[in-house]
């Protein structure tokens, strides 16, 4: 009898892991309730504990808005962002001036 490899979507895996972690039920009991192999659920749970997600082998990096930055680093980041905005604005102005000059030359040559 050939066994078929079943593919579970990320939402199902995360839900199964959540059941194990939040209820404290043993993995074999939850696996039996869900109709999956206990080894499969065990690997999802261990991967989630290690990486933060049962769907990925890479650690999940939580986006924390400035949570790990020191005050000086935050100030530097804000200064650099403001500088980038000013440069983008200047680039747009220069592009508009260039386009006007191109049109002027095109009309002058005719």
Automatic annotation (TrEMBL):
<dbReference type="GO" id="GO:0003677">
    <property type="term" value="F:DNA binding"/>
</dbReference>
<dbReference type="InterPro" id="IPR002514">
    <property type="entry name" value="Transposase_8"/>
</dbReference>
<dbReference type="GO" id="GO:0004803">
    <property type="term" value="F:transposase activity"/>
</dbReference>
<protein>
    <submittedName>
        <fullName>Transposase</fullName>
    </submittedName>
</protein>
<dbReference type="InterPro" id="IPR009057">
    <property type="entry name" value="Homeodomain-like_sf"/>
</dbReference>
<feature type="region of interest" description="Disordered">
    <location>
        <begin position="45"/>
        <end position="75"/>
    </location>
</feature>
<dbReference type="Pfam" id="PF01527">
    <property type="entry name" value="HTH_Tnp_1"/>
</dbReference>
<dbReference type="GO" id="GO:0006313">
    <property type="term" value="P:DNA transposition"/>
</dbReference>
